[in-house]
Amino acid sequence: MKVMRKIIEIDEEKCDGCGNCVPSCAEGAIRIIDGKAKVVADKYCDGLGACLGDCPQGALALVEREADEFDEEAVEEMLKAQGAEEKSAPVGGCPSAAIKTFPMAGPGLAGGKEIASGGPSALGHWPVQIRLVPAGAPFLRGADLLIAADCVPVAYPSFHADFLKGKAVMIGCPKFDDAQAYVDKLADVFAESGIKSVTTVVMEVPCCSGMAGIIKKALEKSGMDIPFKEVTVSARGEILS
User: Considering the entire predicted model, what is its pTM?
Assistant: First the structure.
């Protein structure tokens, strides 16, 4: 049933897809789709405008128009369906899941802080955990993607310089995490973000071989033809293949 009420309107010309508005919408009404923030359905937006102050581009506005009534039960069902783990960060505004992008690291960009002896960080964004990275994250668009087993940065001393520089990165553990959830998430990433290439770096231990299988299944599910490269390192930090 449609009624006259207040609801969020998004100016797609102004929206740059940063995703800052997504965590501020407790109802999960806003998502990044094809690089733009969108209200996925009128019934999910309560029209209170909690997201308004989180858009750096001024793309959000509260307007009054004819729209479906806000449906609290539909919101609860939708959030439950999306999965409690992935949704917990946006609903609670968890800082660990907030999307951030960083400038190119280099001399003079440390803000007066001490730079590690191995050189400046090559990390260009946050978050990095596969489970926390939204499939439509702006830093994934058109990126060369590095998918690393989370033990690799510990074992390989020049991880930033040799693998991470110039790439978006996602990390995870193919042994302890939900492999099917990885397949589903990565398939969405490949289908939505225009990924140019995928490199996976894993450890020599047998359980790490599962990461390549996960990525191949995700590529097959997405239907995308993306160049894929595998690298294996030893527990002593040597490149084996």
Answer: 0.60
